[in-house]
Design brief:
The chain has 355 residues and is of the alpha/beta class. Helices cover 46% and strands 12% of the residues. It folds into two domains: 76 residues, SRP54, nucleotide-binding domain (Four Helix Bundle (Hemerythrin (Met), subunit A)); 190 residues, Rossmann fold, CATH 3.40.50. GO terms for molecular function: GTP binding; GTPase activity; signal recognition particle binding. It comes from Janthinobacterium violaceinigrum.
């Protein structure tokens, strides 16, 4: 399983040390198993991938991911059991893909490419056709796979948006814990200033992770974001995460407020926010694509986090996003625990979806 990218300091006199391993799938209750991460340096360095290769943890993650996507997996897998390669199979596959929330565009693309592959390679059995579909789906989703890079700026400012109920605040808490495990100091900004429950929830995550939360009752969300960036700069904090009020993209005045927050963050630090993320509930189907379009138009998103892939989620919406609005997917989540939020890996996702 892949983890965050980070910078490794390089000096003229010494050979670079082996990159530390980010314990992305290590539960917080077992700190003894957490490898130590070397501090980031401001010196020029090249980005180095850090890979978590703990096989038992990877198997556990894949088991849970497969369980979360079983609704679609079971439907697709049964189609290829003893099936003939004919129009009836393609029609059933089309229906299954549409039911998985892949959308018309992605479904038509996959079927067209699959038929071409079957003809060119003279595939005669269902297992070979299923394997070809897996390859096509991985190729479709691969552009969404992008590693999250730490240490590019200090502080690295992240603005995080999403509709109410998408799991935005919980995701912020999980990301904070992941970053701390990679030796990053974190500050949270409670930008949802009008909902006491939202501020309190973020405060709980802050206490749980021993992270400072800057909050302001009934204040200007943009002012809270600005103050948080200034505080992080003064205190030498590595990462600032700005929570914003959950809203529907149809609430135009609230979308304008998001644009204002982003502009004000930029005044607080040149080039900020460095990451503008949207958290999406994986159970919302094609509505998730609508959200991506609206928030991307308003904020120019740099990445997505797909949550709640452990319920009735069908998973196909990632194919729709890849075809219509290919914003990178940094992380996917399948549960409430810290280790249930992991970097998105296209091959792993397709394996869980198709088996």
């Amino acid at each position: 399983m892949f983890s965050f990218f980070k910078k490794k300091p390089i000096t003229p006199e010494a050979t670079p040390a082996e990159p530390p391993v980010l314990p992305a799938a290590t539960p917080p209750a077992a700190p003894a198993a957490t490898p130590a991460a070397a501090p980031l340096s401001g010196a020029p360095a090249e980005l180095v991938p850090v890979i978590v290769a703990a096989e038992p943890e990877k198997k556990s993650w894949m088991t849970r991911l497969k369980a979360g996507l079983s609704k679609t997996s079971n439907t697709l897998s049964v189609l290829f059991v003893g099936a003939k390669i004919d129009d009836a199979l393609y029609e059933e596959l089309e229906a299954a893909l549409l039911m998985s929330d892949a959308g018309i565009d992605a479904t038509e693309f996959l079927l067209t490419e699959l038929k071409k592959k079957v003809k060119e390679d003279k595939l005669l059995d269902a297992a070979a056709v299923k394997a070809a579909l897996k390859v096509l789906l991985i190729e479709l989703l691969l552009p969404l796979e992008k590693r999250f890079e730490l240490g590019r700026h200090k502080p690295l400012v992240m603005m995080i948006s999403g509709v109410n109920g998408a799991g935005k605040t919980t995701t912020i808490g999980k990301l904070a814990k992941h970053m701390q495990s990679n030796n990053q100091s974190v500050l949270l900004a409670a930008g949802d200033t009008f909902r006491a429950a939202a501020r309190e929830q973020l405060m709980v995550w802050g206490e749980r992770n021993n992270v400072t939360v800057i909050s302001q009752e009934s204040g200007d969300p943009a002012a809270v974001a600005y103050d948080s960036v200034q505080s992080a700069k003064a205190r030498g904090i590595d990462v600032v995460m700005v929570d914003t009020a959950g809203r529907l993209p149809t609430q135009l005045h609230l979308m304008e407020e998001l644009k204002k927050i982003k502009r004000v963050i930029g005044k607080g630090m040149d080039g900020a926010p460095h990451e503008t993320l949207l958290v999406i509930d994986g159970n919302t189907g094609q509505n998730a694509l609508t959200q991506v379009k609206a928030f991307d138009d308003a904020l120019q998103l740099s990445g997505l986090v797909i949550t709640k892939l452990d319920g009735t989620a069908k998973g196909g919406v990632l194919a729709a996003i890849a075809r219509v609005r290919p914003v990178p997917v940094y992380f996917i989540g399948i549960g409430e625990k810290i280790e249930d939020l992991q970097p998105f890996v296209a091959a792993e996702f397709v394996e869980a979806l198709l088996g």
